[in-house]
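Chain A, query sequence.
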Amino acid sequence: MSAKSNTITVANENSSNDFGLEKGLKTAIVTAIDSLTVNTDEYLALNKYEVDEANAHIELIDNPSEEEFLKLVRVCPAALYKIDAEGKQSFDYAGCLECGTCRIACGDTIIAKWENPQPTMGIIYRYG
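Chain A, predicted structure.
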């Protein structure tokens, strides 16, 4: 999996809207927010997965719409939904966190099946 970093910028010295903040305070806020960046790969690597190769717990419909698939690319915390440089869609249920975000985001529009993995299969959380 590739590392993901999200940085939120509230304001900086070059901002056209200073939010009524002094320059030093703006810099302190930006520095504090930048230090909150988390590499989720470190935490995901601590989990253990027992993949049920014979029974996928998530299945997509054939030829899902690009719009619906993009929702899943954006919301899946395990980054299991991908679109490559040529626009080809790919999905792999191995490594699923079983959070149900895909089910909530798309319902039954492109998800043909979503069920909990069989007993002794799926994710075993080792952190948190």
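Helices lie at 23-34, 40-44, 66-75, 101-106. The beta strands are 48-50, 58-60, 81-83, 89-91, 111-114, 122-124.
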